[in-house]
Specification:
Structural class: alpha+beta
Strand order of the largest sheet: 4-5-7-8
Largest sheet: 4 strands, antiparallel
Strand content: 5-15%
Number of strands: 8
Shape: elongated
Length: about 425
């Protein structure tokens, strides 16, 4: 009795037909879709790049904080201006010779708001990298799952064709005896042999396709392996719709808006007063009078206040507003496209599930018909042509079921991709 598509158990050796029609074996080894996804995520150079960029942002933050701490420098300068036979620099200006060796400490006294705004910019840049990383992870999961579904369907198709081929081989032995006894005509028996050979070719073709899709699955996952393993059925469930506001795809637009606000703050910072103080100490002498006493210290400050820059501030704000308008246009377009995409996927998934249920019921009828025809065939109460027609109907229905199932899984995969 044919029971439809069944998974090969772990104790069954994986059977594949080679290009010439022969058979080779490899030991069955079960794998699931998460095995390939985790491997792809682990070796992805793009995700590693994002991770390194986040580490670099942490260093930028540390460097910025360090820049607002007191800055201590050590410096030394010396000069000598000789006067020979009355020729030389005026000593009143050059002091003849000078030397200094100082340690100076500088500290910005108006800078906390500037520092906080700059740190906010670094944090927003990190958030943007995190958002891009999350989308890249989604892309990897989606592409690996798509290929896994395709490969798993090939595996199921191969297993089904193998099952039907083995059934036809069994029936062929019975028909051969019945043909020899003239229960069936030789022409009918030869027609059945043609069907058997076609099934063998179909099995060989499907096996080749399975190997090709397996190679692509390994390629996308970064796995160096040419063997074919047994894939477990992908268990995919459509996640509950959470809405666009919680989607990772909208996060980038929100971060871009915050970055533009931060850019405005940084522009305004350039028009605020800046002040710093310094203190130094050391040796500074012209060697004219008691140079051994020229050790000392000094303190000072600097203040700068922007007054007029030709209206650049207003023009820079206008540029940022243009960028914000562009961001809003892209966001509105994406929102419409997203909603349309999700609604379409939900509608297609519902229709596919309904069609799958109908085909499943149809398969039960075709299975029952084949069971009856198989018994009648052995007693000569049915023509081989009718039996072949029943087999072809069963094959077509099973093929439709697999195509609908792969469509259902791919739709769930796409829906989960957008609904994250």
């Amino acid at each position: 009795m044919i029971k439809g598509v069944r998974e090969i158990s772990s104790i069954l050796l994986l059977t594949l037909l080679s290009y010439s029609g022969g058979i080779f074996l490899c030991q069955a080894q079960h794998k699931k879709v998460d095995d390939y996804i985790q491997k792809a995520l682990t070796i992805s150079p793009l995700l590693r790049d994002f991770k390194n960029q986040l580490l670099s942002d942490k260093m930028d933050s540390a460097i910025l904080r360090a820049g607002y701490r007191p800055q201590v420098t050590a410096s030394s300068t010396g000069s000598y201006a000789p006067v020979i036979n009355g020729y030389g620099y005026d000593n009143a200006l050059s002091n003849g010779k000078t030397f200094d060796a100082l340690i100076t400490a500088n500290q910005n006294i108006i800078g906390k708001s500037r520092r906080d705004i700059q740190l906010e910019g670094i944090i927003l840049h990190s958030d943007s990298i995190n958002a891009a990383s999350e989308i890249s992870r989604q892309d990897i999961k989606k592409s690996i799952t798509e290929q896994y579904i395709t490969t798993y369907t090939d595996q199921q198709q191969r297993d089904f064709y193998l099952e039907v081929y083995q059934l036809l081989q069994k029936e062929e032995k019975v028909l051969k005896v019945l043909a020899q006894k003239s229960v069936y005509k030789q022409a009918d028996y030869l027609a059945f042999l043609v069907t058997l050979q076609q099934q063998e070719l179909q099995l060989s073709q499907t096996s080749i396709q399975l190997k090709n899709d397996f190679a692509r699955l390994n390629y996308l996952s970064g796995i160096i392996d040419t063997s074919v393993t047994v894939l477990q059925e992908p268990v995919l469930t459509a996640t509950q719709l959470t809405g666009l506001s919680n989607s990772i795809f909208i996060k980038g637009y929100k971060i871009d808006s915050l970055k533009l606000l931060n850019d405005k703050k940084q522009i305004d910072l350039n028009y605020k007063p800046q002040a710093s103080v310094y203190i130094n100490g050391g040796y500074n002498s012209s060697f004219i009078l008691q140079p051994y006493k020229n050790f000392g210290t000094s303190v000072g400050f600097s203040v700068s206040v922007p007054v007029y820059d030709g209206g650049q501030r207003k023009m820079k704000h206008t540029q940022l507003q243009i960028q914000e308008n562009t961001r809003q246009d892209y966001l509105q377009f994406f929102t419409r496209q997203y909603q349309q995409q999700v609604n379409q996927l939900v509608q297609q998934l519902q229709g596919t599930q309904e069609l799958q249920a109908k085909i499943t019921r149809q398969i039960k009828f075709t299975e029952g018909l084949i069971n009856v025809d198989s018994k009648l065939l052995q007693t000569g109460d049915i023509t081989i042509a009718d039996y072949v027609i029943a087999i072809n109907n069963y094959l077509n229905t099973q093929y439709m079921l697999r195509q609908v199932n792969i469509s259902r899984l791919q739709l769930i995969n796409q829906l989960n991709y957008w609904n994250n």
